[in-house]
Design goal:
Shape of chain A: globular
Radius of gyration of chain A: 18 Å
Order of helices and strands of chain B: HEHEEEHEEEEEHEEEEEHE
Oligomer: heterodimer
CATH class of chain A: Alpha Beta
CATH architecture of chain A: 3-Layer(aba) Sandwich
CATH topology of chain A: Glutaconate Coenzyme A-transferase
Largest sheet of chain A: 8 strands, mixed
Distance between the termini of chain A: 50 Å
Structural class of chain A: alpha/beta
Strand content of chain B: 25-35%
Distance between the termini of chain B: 13 Å
Shape of chain B: globular
CATH architecture of chain B: 3-Layer(aba) Sandwich
CATH superfamily of chain B: Glutaconate Coenzyme A-transferase
Strand content of chain A: 25-35%
Number of helices of chain B: 5
CATH superfamily of chain A: Glutaconate Coenzyme A-transferase
Number of strands of chain A: 11
Number of domains of chain A: 1
Number of strands of chain B: 15
Number of domains of chain B: 1
Helix content of chain A: 10-25%
Radius of gyration of chain B: 17 Å
Largest sheet of chain B: 10 strands, mixed
Order of helices and strands of chain A: HEHEHEHEHEEEEEHEE
Strand order of the largest sheet of chain B: 4-3-2-1-5-10-12-13-14-15
C-alpha cells in the first residue's frame, strides 16, 4: 500500500505559494474543501488564481479568501450570490474569466486524462468564442478549448482511505471528482479517513493514484446556501 | 396574462413519456410541479443528479444534496449521482431530451441572452451555454416584456449572447411562440390577451399562425 496520509491540513498544503493556480472543488457551498480554504486564509497566501465553479458567498467558501484580497484571478462559470466579489469584479480589483460550466469541467477532465485540447459547441457565436479557433465538424461549429494547468487541486470527499481512494456523497461529488488528478499535486480532505481495506473496491469513485495527499478535516460546517422546504 | 405557475403549467404539456429533462432556475423549476399524470419523466440537475424529487421536509434536509439553483432537494427511487464532467457529457452528448430555461432576451433568429448586463450585472453563464449549444429541444420560459415594459422578443439581442440560433419555442405570460424562418410565429395566446396586444409588445418580426388559438387550462 502506498500511503497518501498526512497528519494535518498544514502538512497537506505544504508548497502552496503566492501566485499559484489552484483548482477548488465544490458547487456553490456544496462539497467545498472547508478546511483547506480556512488554512489558506491563515497562511496569508496571495495572488492566487482560483479555478472553481463558483466564488463562494460573502462570508464562506472562497468568499473568505476574497475578503482578504488573496485572489488575483477567478476562473468560474457562475459568480452570483457574492456581493463582495461582484464589487471587486466591477471595480476591476479582481480579474475574472467566466467560462461555460461544461467547458470548465472538460478542461479539468482533459488535464487529468492527458488530453491537451478539445472542441466543444458551448459558446460558439458568443463572447466566449473571442480569439478562439472555430472548426466545423459534421456541419456544426465548435470551439477549441485547452486543458487547464494548475499547481494544486483542493478536493473534498466524504470518505477516503490511507491509499487515497475516495467516495463522494450526493451532489457533493460535482467538480471534486473531475478535478482530483487534474493538478500537479492533488490534496484531498475527507470527513472520515479509514484504514485501507475498509472501503469496498467496487464503490470507489476516485482511485488513489490521482491523490498525492489525504487528511481528515477537523470540522465541517456544511453550510446550506438556499434552504428550500416542501410545504 | 399567465402567472409564472401557468407558464410552467403550459410548458409541462410539452413533456413526453420517458423524457429526461433539465430545468433552469426560476420559472422552469416550477414545471416539475405539473407533470401530466400517466407520464414518466426524470429531471436532471447539472450539478450531478438524475431523478430529482420534491424539496425536502426539515427532517430530510441534507447539505450534500442540492440542485443547480443551490436549493435543497430530495431524490426519487432510481436516482443517480455523478460528477460535473459526466453531467455535461449527458448534455453535450444529447442524452437529455428537453431543456427549459429563462432568458433576458430572445431574437427572431432564435438567439438567446441570459447571463450578463455589461457594467451592471455579471452572474455568469453557468451551464446555460452548454445546454443551448447542444440541446435539440429548448423551451424558453420568460415574461414577454422587461420591468420597464420593453419587449424581450427582439429583432436582435442587445445583451451578450448565450447561444445562437438555438431557441425553437418560447412561452411567455402572453402566449406561446415558435421561431421559424427567422421570425416569431404566434401559436397560442394567453386567455383574454388579444393577438393585437401580443403584436404591440413584440419588437421582432411576428406572424400569426393560421392555427393560432387561445390557451386552455
Amino acid at each position: 500500500m502506498i500511503s497518501k496520509k498526512v497528519n494535518s491540513v498544514k502538512e497537506a498544503l505544504t508548497g502552496i505559494a503566492n501566485g499559484m493556480t489552484l483548482l477548488v472543488g465544490g458547487f456553490g457551498l456544496c462539497g467545498i474543501p472547508e478546511n483547506a480554504i480556512a488554512e489558506l486564509v491563515q497562511l496569508h497566501i496571495k495572488e492566487l488564481t482560483c479555478v472553481s465553479n463558483n466564488a463562494g458567498v460573502d462570508d464562506f467558501g472562497l468568499g473568505l479568501l476574497l475578503q482578504k484580497h488573496q485572489i488575483k484571478k477567478m476562473v468560474s462559470s457562475y459568480v452570483g450570490e457574492n456581493h463582495e466579489f461582484e464589487r471587486q469584479m466591477l471595480s476591476g480589483e479582481i480579474e475574472v474569466e467566466l467560462i461555460p460550466q461544461g467547458t470548465l469541467a472538460e478542461r479539468c477532465r482533459s488535464s487529468k486524462m492527458g488530453i491537451p485540447a478539445f472542441f466543444t459547441p458551448a459558446g460558439v457565436g458568443t463572447e466566449v468564442a473571442e480569439e478562439k479557433e472555430v472548426r466545423e465538424f459534421n456541419g456544426k461549429q465548435y470551439l477549441l478549448e485547452y486543458a487547464v494547468k494548475a499547481d494544486f487541486a483542493l478536493i473534498k470527499a466524504w470518505k477516503g482511505d490511507e491509499a487515497g481512494n475516495l467516495i463522494f456523497k450526493g451532489t457533493a461529488r460535482n467538480f471534486n471528482q473531475v478535478m482530483c488528478g487534474a493538478a500537479k499535486i492533488n490534496v484531498v480532505e475527507v470527513e472520515e479517513l479509514v484504514p485501507v481495506g475498509e472501503l469496498n473496491p467496487n464503490e470507489i469513485h476516485v482511485p488513489g493514484v490521482f491523490v498525492q495527499r489525504i487528511f481528515q478535516g477537523e470540522k465541517y460546517e456544511k453550510r446550506i446556501e438556499k434552504l428550500t422546504l416542501s410545504e | 396574462m399567465l402567472t409564472k405557475e401557468q407558464i410552467a403549467q403550459r410548458i409541462s404539456k410539452e413533456l413526453q413519456d420517458s423524457f429526461y429533462v433539465n430545468l433552469g432556475i426560476g420559472i422552469p423549476t416550477l414545471v416539475a410541479n405539473y407533470v401530466p399524470s400517466g407520464i414518466n419523466v426524470e429531471f436532471q440537475s447539472e450539478n450531478g443528479v438524475l431523478g430529482m424529487g420534491a424539496f425536502p421536509t426539515r427532517e430530510q434536509v441534507d447539505a450534500d444534496l442540492i440542485n443547480a439553483g443551490k436549493q435543497t432537494i430530495t431524490t426519487l427511487p432510481g436516482a443517480s449521482f455523478f460528477d460535473s464532467e459526466l453531467s455535461f457529457g449527458m448534455i453535450r452528448g444529447q442524452h437529455i431530451d428537453l431543456t427549459v430555461l429563462g432568458a433576458m432576451e430572445v431574437s427572431q433568429y432564435g438567439d438567446i441572452a441570459n447571463w450578463k448586463i455589461p457594467g451592471k450585472m455579471v452572474k455568469g453563464m453557468g451551464g446555460a451555454m452548454d445546454l443551448v449549444a447542444s440541446a435539440e429541444n429548448i423551451i424558453v420560459a420568460m415574461m414577454h416584456t422587461n420591468r420597464v415594459g420593453a419587449s424581450k422578443l427582439l429583432k436582435q439581442c442587445s445583451l451578450p449572447l448565450t447561444g445562437v440560433g438555438c431557441v425553437k419555442t418560447i412561452v411567455t405570460n402572453l402566449g406561446l411562440l415558435t421561431v421559424e424562418n427567422n421570425q416569431f410565429v404566434l401559436q397560442e395566446t394567453a386567455p383574454n390577451i388579444g393577438i393585437e396586444y401580443v403584436k404591440s409588445v413584440t419588437e421582432g418580426d411576428l406572424v400569426v399562425s393560421s392555427t393560432c388559438k387561445e390557451m386552455e387550462f
